[in-house]
Amino acid sequence: MLGIQILALIFCFGGIGAVIAATASNEWKVTSRATSVITATWVFQGLWMNCAGNALGAFHCRPHFTIFRLEGYIQACRGLMIAAVSLGFFGSIFAMVGMKCTKVGGSDQTKAKVACLAGMIFILSGLCSMTGCSLYANRITSEFFDPTFIAQKYELGAALFIGWAGASLCIIGGSIFCFSIAENSKSPRMGYTYNGATSVMSSRTKVHNSAADFKSPKGPPKHFDKNAYV
To answer: CA-to-CA distance for 102 and 110, rounded, in angstroms?
Structure first.
């Protein structure tokens, strides 16, 4: 159980790291080499700035100075990726509290609920990242295959694949955290021997039987002769 939670935490941390890297990257879309006139120069754009580079290694980036002139899909992707990073931050805190290896969070049942809540937050973070990257990729592909689109065409950048990978890791790790509540809800079971046959009883049943044995008299039963008072 503890090893599964540690594996889920590794997945979630790796996913959040990939989502942050994709959000800060400028390679969400790059110029298509098939339509580029000057093959030694290329342009790549991200959520925060546009950059241009050439084969000599010179790069120049210009940030988006205002959000009012940006297209709607870029603003939507910005909001989704920021939401994914924020949810991942809070999910990491809840995951650290809900893990069985930590000493905070209360009883095992309470920690299991906190771990399940962290899993749901990580799943939401992964869905936000997946939606943002898919929305951006859909816009790129629709422009690329549109014959009436005469402006510069772009291809999918490396940041989109990093964002998809991070979203998948967050969803997988969050699902493992959600399933961990089912493991903690199972009561421990122990075995006992009765007349040479091995059976299984729950800990609650054993406690109940122990209480009943405590109330019953421990000495041997007394037998009275029916002619004793004649």
So the answer is: 13
